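Side project, low priority. Logging it here so it doesn't get lost.
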Amino acid sequence: MLGAKQHWPPGPPLSPGLPLALTLLVLRAGWAQEGTEPVLLEGECLVVCEPGRAAAGGPGGAALGEAPPGRVAFAAVRSHHHEPAGEISNGTGGAIYFDQVLVNEGGGFDRASGSFVAPVRGVYSFRFHVVKVYNRQTVQVSLMLNTWPVVSAFANDPDVTREAATSSVLLPLDPGDRVSLRLRRGNLLGGWKYSSFSGFLIFPL
């Protein structure tokens, strides 16, 4: 009949497994006349949250609208060709040290050992660039996760005065995991100025 109001049938009851922050739009509509599109009369929004989860938010449990905790990044370089006595970067098997730290957000990089210690669990990106100077020997540099060599790079051209071993990798780390560079072959007796080692947290797990 013309002018008769009709109502949408009630929806099914909410189940306990609905996602966090489910938004329900409750609409009441009527027909202006038979055969026409429904006309919106009024509406309201209802936000339903899971119990105990109202404050949960982004990665790492940060509240909505807040930056996640655990910003981690480091960058270290070699500003001199040769190192103080006691450091062993110039021999096979030795750790490669860096004397200048440009960035150490989160405090994970230890200049004394030349290594990075993960402060939080997450996926990290690492990159290294190790230069050999006036050295005809092949140099192999490995990025170590604790005692395990993950990736290696080589500089093996005997006819150039400067060459670099460069590589990068993504790694999942747990708190306390140690990442460092080690000279697995050759030596750096000619020096390694302008070498660099850097990394950052991509996202926490």
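Brief comment: Residues 109 and 116 are 4 Å apart (CA to CA).
Revisit when time allows.
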